[in-house]
Structures are given as C-alpha cells and as structure tokens.
Amino acid sequence: MDLKSIKKKNLYEEIVYQIIQFTQNENLKPGDKLPPENKLMDLFDVSKTSVREALNILATRGIIEKRPGVGSILKEVTGSVFVENIANRLIMGEQALREILEFRRVIEVEAAGLAAERATKEQINKLREAHLNLIKANENGGIGIEEDYLFHYIIIISSGNSIFSSIFDTISTRFFEAIKITKNQSVMLSQQYITDTHKEHQKILEAIEAKDAYAARSEMLEHLQKNEQKLWSNELKFS
C-alpha cells in the first residue's frame, strides 16, 4: 500500500483522511480494530500526539470507538458521515479547488443527463428562471455568484437522484466557494467569459428541455472543462 508521509499543513485532518483510506484499502469492517498508535505513527511518519488527535477527531465524528484496553474499533459508517469527512478535509486552497472541480465533473455531468430524462416542468421553469436571473445580474454589473450556483443546484435536484442531492447538500459550502473563487478571477470577469457562460448555460438548458440526455451531459462537460482551462491558465487568488 502506498502511504505518503503527512505534510505539516492541516496535519490532523490529513491523518484522518489517510486513516479512512487505510480502512478502505485493508477492507476493514465495522467491529474491526485499527492498528495500534505506534503502527499508525510508522505508517504515516508522524508523532504519537498527532495520531492521538486524529483518532480523537474520528471518534468525535462517529467513525471509530475508542475502548480502553482494547484500542480503536471501526464503527458502522453511514454515507453522510463519510461524505462529511471528505468535506471537512477540503479547506479551500489550490489542491482542494482542483479536487472539488474534478468532483463537480463527476456529479454534474451525470446529473445533467439524468435531469434531461427526469426533470419536471416546474423544475425546468426554475432552471430557466435561474438562467435569466444570472443574465440580469451580469447586465446590472454583478458577478452573479449566487445565480450561477442556483443554476447548477437546480440541475442536481432535477436529476431525481437523492444521493447526488445529499452529497451536494453536504459539501454545498465547498461547491459555492469553488464557484466564488472561479468567478472572482480576473479572466472570469471579462465580458467574453460572461457571454460564453450565458451561451453554455443556454445550451445545457435547451438540452434538458429537449430531454436529450446525451447533449445535456456533453454540454455540461464542455462548460466545466472550459471554466477549468481558463482558471488554471491564470495565477489564482484565494481571497
């Protein structure tokens, strides 16, 4: 198993994440015991204090149970607890932004296709309204962060997949922050970018209205990829 030494930044959270990866890689089940602290120290090349703090975090989040004289026992982990753990790890920096943008591609492309197949008339009307509100916000000189977020959120809901919705709700703050960072970059404030966004959203909307799942997925993927290409071609600012 390829376990990397932990960097000092966000140390405890990184150890937490690595321990969760370890339990998955080793196929540990609820009731199984984690390796002792000394073993975890060696695996992750960190101090005993850091390991203990990470285990305390896992216990607080309901991932493990610490039993005196026995050790740390893996508990039954629900999907929402696991997703929340991922969300807690994503303190927004460049690497975290890359991860959330990659995750958006996985979720939103498929959600767009499902929305084309399943969206109700009311949901399509709300999506159209969100699209028009973004255009209006931009025409009034605004960036349209909330309006852009709402457009994508409605597509997630319109997919009719409750797991997609639950994941999105759990890490919605990170999704919103990713959109905010993206739209606040200088390249994204140009009139050309704004016009392109309107056209791309329009194509996504039209594909969903036409119940064309293939086109909806294709248009969403192209939209997200274009945003990423523009974003990484410039020096990022996270404030």
TrEMBL record:
SUPFAM superfamilies in alphabetical order: GntR ligand-binding domain-like, Winged helix' DNA-binding domain
SMART domains recorded: FCD, HTH_GNTR
Family annotation (InterPro entries): GntR_C, TF_FadR/GntR_C, Tscrpt_reg_HTH_GntR, WH-like_DNA-bd_sf, WH_DNA-bd_sf
Domain HTH gntR-type: 9-77
GO molecular function list: DNA binding; DNA-binding transcription factor activity
Signal peptide bounds: none
Pfam families on file: FCD, GntR
Keywords: DNA-binding, Transcription, Transcription regulation
PROSITE patterns with a match to the protein in the record: HTH_GNTR
Domain of life from the UniProt record: Bacteria
Protein name according to UniProt: FadR family transcriptional regulator
Organism of derivation: Peribacillus saganii
